[in-house]
C-alpha cells in the first residue's frame, strides 16, 4: 500500500484559521452508504436515534508550547508532551540542541538530559505544570497561522482531563445546547480518554504505509463505557464514535464487538485492511491532511475511494478543512 494513494490537493485558503462561531453552525458532510447529504452540525440530532450510544474523548489540551532562550543566546521552542519518571519528553526547535544545553524559561533553567531522536529530547524541569501555566501557549498546528484570541477555542466543551498536545477536533463542533438535545433524545453519552501526542500527527515518511510505526499514546476506557458499547452491540443499537482518537482508544480494547475496560499506552495504527472490532456504526470526524494516519484510519472504515471521492466533493462545495474546519459523519456498512 503506497503513501501516495492517500494524497489529494487542497488550496491553502480552504484551511480554516478560526473556529466557527457558534461552533454548531459548522457544516456537516453526512457520508451515507448511498448518498451524500450536506447539513449544518446543529442538525446532527436529527440523525441520531433513541438508544444510540455516543462516545467522546474528554482529554484536555495543555498549554504545552513554551518559548525559551539558551544561556548562551538564541531562541528555543519546547513542546512538552510526556512525563517520564522525573523528566519530560519534549519536541525542541532550535539550533545546536544537545545534551547538557541549558534553556531559560521565566525564572527556571531547564537542562537537556538526553537526545531521543526526531527532534525529541529529555528535559530536566522541576515544575513543568507551573511553567506551562505561566508561560505556555496552546500548541495549535503549524497550518493555523493566527494566534488564538481565547485558549478555550482549541478545547472541546467537555474537556476535563489534562494531557493532550492537540485537540480531538471532531468534538470541537459540540455545544452545550447540542449535547442537551442529544441526551434528551435518548442517546447515551459516554467518555474515554486518549491524550493526543506526537503519534497522532507525526508525518508518515515511509512510501510503504505498512512500514510506518505509531508513537504510543496514553488511553483509558472505563468500565461504564466498555459495558455501554458492548450492550449496544448485543442489542443491535448503534454506536457512534466521536473522532479518530476515540476510535483508537475503543479499538485498542475491543474484540468481536465486545469492549473491555483498559488503561495503558496504545500504538494502534489503523489503515485499510484493518478489521474493526468495536462494532462502530458511525464515525464523526473532521477533514484530515493528505498522507496522514488520520486519513488512513477514516479510509479503513469507509473505503479509500469513497473517502477521497467525498473529499473531492467537499472541496467543490467549499467546506473548511482541518482542525477548525467542518465535520464529516460517516455511515458504516453495518449501520
Concise overview:
With 335 residues, this protein is α+β, with helices and mostly antiparallel strands. The chain is built from 7 helices and 19 strands.
In the CATH hierarchy, the architecture of the largest domain is 3-Layer(aba) Sandwich
- Briefly note the structural class of the backbone: alpha+beta
- The number of distinct helices, counting runs of at least 4 residues, comes to 7
Radius of gyration: 20 Å
The structural domain count equals 2
Total strand count, please? 19
By CATH, the superfamily of the largest domain comes out as QueA-like
Descriptive account of the structure:
The protein is α+β, with helices and mostly antiparallel strands and 335 residues long. It folds into two domains: 3-61 and 149-331, QueA-like (3-Layer(aba) Sandwich); 65-135. The protein is built from seven helices and 19 strands. β5 and β6 (75-84) form a beta hairpin. α6 (293-302) packs across α7 (304-316).
Key attributes of the depicted protein:
2 domains, 335 residues, 19% helix, single chain, QueA-like, six-stranded antiparallel β-barrel
Strand-helix topology:
Blueprint (H helix, E strand, L loop, with lengths): L26 E5 L4 E5 L12 E5 L1 E3 L3 E6 L4 E10 L2 E7 L8 E4 L2 E10 L2 E5 L3 H8 L25 E4 L11 H9 L3 E7 L3 H4 L15 E5 L1 H13 L3 E4 L1 H8 L2 E2 L2 E2 L2 E5 L15 E5 L6 H10 L1 H13 L10 E5 L4
Parallel strand pairs: 1-19, 3-12, 3-14, 4-11, 14-18
Antiparallel strand pairs: 1-2, 5-6, 5-8, 6-7, 7-10, 8-9, 9-10, 12-13, 13-17, 15-16, 18-19
Helix pairs in contact: 6-7
